[in-house]
Amino acid sequence: MYTIENLALTLSQYLPYDQIAKVKRAYFYAEQAHDGQKRKSGEPYVTHPLAVAEILSELRMDCDGLTAALLHDVIEDTGISREALTEQFGAEVASLVDGVSKLTHLEFNSQVEKQAHNFQKMAMAMADDIRVILVKLADRLHNMRTLDAMPAHKKRRIARETLDIYAPIANRLGMYKVRVDLESLAFQAYYPMRARMLQRAINKKYGQQRIKDTQKLEDHIRAELAADYIEATISVREKHIYSIYQKMDKKRRSLAEIMDVMGVRIVTDRHDSCYRILGVIHALFKPIEGRFKDYIAVPKSNGYQSLHTTVLGSNGIPMEVQIRTEEMDLVANNGIAAHWAYKVSGTSNMPSNHDRATKWVKSLLEIQQKARNPVEFVDNVKSDLFPDEVYVFTPNGQIIELPSGATPVDFAYGVHTEIGNTCISCRINRRLAPLSTQLESGQTVEIITAKNAQPNVAWLSFAITGKARTNIRHYLKDKQRENAISIGNRLLTRSLNAFKTNIEELTIEQIAQVLNNHQLASLDDLLESIGKGRHVGYLVARELFPNYDEETLITPKSFKVNGSEGMLISYAKCCAPIPGDPIVGSVQVDKGIVIHHLNCPNVQDHLSNPERFIHMAWGKEIEEELNISLIVTYINERGAVANIASSISDTDFQVSNLDIIERGRVSRLRLSITISSRVGLADVMRRIKAVRCVEKVSRETIVGR
């Protein structure tokens, strides 16, 4: 049972008397405010904020953070205002309580949009004061410890939400103890049968013998360290159950195949002792190649520092050994919360994990500002919440931390947004490499930029960091608007030509009337809407000149395709038109103009509709490279396919795929090829027809398959 006296006793170990008095005053204030309120378990409600404060006291939280923890439900549940708290406890405490109150009723359910919005609110609260999320994590931890009072369906929902959101945030902030507790409790609540069966299997596999083996191992390592005059604390532990389950689930292995269930942690007093201990461990046990990581020289992004090595134990089972100093151990267990322990004690040598966490939260703000909606925001920060880091170097030796699976594009944006926006290629360890290459720790990456370069939509298929994906999407969104305005301008101008006028000659009143009709703010918004196919240029022109005599309308000129329109001009896959083909444009909502072959069966019934179909023509200078498919009918003899392929191998045309679609004495194959004109197509078809075994070559349309 938690009591204010027990809390005060804990606080007396690191807080001065006047600050303890403030915390106690907050408790009595909360007790009075929550008077008569009960928890689901039947306990007085005030036991909950007291337990939250107790959890934070173990993390050495400062006075204002503890005060806010005791008062965190007061605004939400008792009607006491923020102003009243400011008067009683100061603006900083009131701000923290208000921040936590806004997160109190986060309801994560099957509605993706709502879940994403709530997580976005949490990120914004963290940006104001990171102690808000520490109070929220302690609040969640106590709720998980008392989850049995909840109905079964709520248990599962809260447990799932804990595994998806709260435990990853605790991990990202370096709070190992809190993360492990949250994961273990959530695992038991969400998968109770799996948890029981796995624990039973672990007990059966290792049994009581593991206690004796553990003690024997500790004594053996302690004796070897003492022989080298190294002082250290040694603990042998079993990996927590959810960690073992994740490893089994991800790698599709049985418990018998998960070898490194046991781990050894050695805590010493000095940096150099860590490396001396590593030497002793490698002399005692055979190290496993490729399983050593030096997080002291290169800390994790959340400030975690330790030496990790995996060795073969005396029983032949792999065993992970972690070696660190007492200061590193405090940071490893408490993460960002260790910052307040140092702050309270007045130590100037504060750990850098607070700065790292603050930097991460600021990066969330940047992502949030550029994301189009909460779902995109959450999608973009997932890789940041579940990092398995790689560490790569800039050419001048600066270390860049990235999630596992990151590419040079992620690296470029990690260095600076502008470098990401203008990168065109890269060198990895001084060798040119594709931008889609997955990076490995220790590599040196050099980004090559060009002044007029710009992000490519294809980058979204391999960029994984939130910063990279957000900036790419943000740029493409702006570029798409720019393209849409340009195309909308051309479409409206073309339609206005039929009325013997142009955009420059329109009056302010005419434009204002149309904007008002469609609830648009500016002419650019109208042009963008036309370019994206949401409004039709012909109909907008009719609105601008409602009284115009239709008999005097002139036929508008064809819309010229020059190949530089951007992403709002696309080519229909059903007929795959190429430069030189007669074409027609289909205006589709949010897709812009889709170009079809004039004889495409899919457009024949709609060509008379002037609203959605427009006459088009190829520009003189166009050199657009487009994919088409050829169907080749040939006699199936030895080397036939090779002869067909080699017939165009010495041309500039690129074959992207060759697929045999019918086998027999007379066979058929589909040849996908990149072509830029009808002249080039005729040349390719002539070369293929010249092969002795070929009987027929024709262009394929999807309609004809």
UniProtKB/TrEMBL annotation:
Q: Which domain of life is it from?
A: Bacteria
Instruction: Write out the GO biological process terms.
Output: guanosine tetraphosphate metabolic process; nucleobase-containing small molecule interconversion; response to starvation
Q: Does the keyword Metal-binding apply?
A: no
Q: TGS domain location, by residue?
A: 388-449
Q: Which Pfam families match?
A: ACT_4 (PF13291), HD_4 (PF13328), RelA_AH_RIS (PF19296), RelA_SpoT (PF04607), TGS (PF02824)
Its annotated pathway reads: Purine metabolism; ppGpp biosynthesis; ppGpp from GDP: step 1/1
Q: Where is the HD domain?
A: 45-144
Enzyme class, spelled out: hydrolase
The residues forming a coiled coil are: none
Q: Name the keywords, alphabetized.
A: Hydrolase
What does the UniProt function comment say about this protein? In eubacteria ppGpp (guanosine 3'-diphosphate 5'-diphosphate) is a mediator of the stringent response that coordinates a variety of cellular activities in response to changes in nutritional abundance.
Task: Write down the PANTHER family for this protein, in alphabetical order.
Answer: BIFUNCTIONAL (P)PPGPP SYNTHASE_HYDROLASE SPOT, GUANOSINE-3',5'-BIS DIPHOSPHATE 3'-PYROPHOSPHOHYDROLASE
* Similarity comment: Belongs to the relA/spoT family.
- What name goes with this protein? guanosine-3',5'-bis(diphosphate) 3'-diphosphatase
Instruction: Please give the organism.
Output: Marinomonas algarum
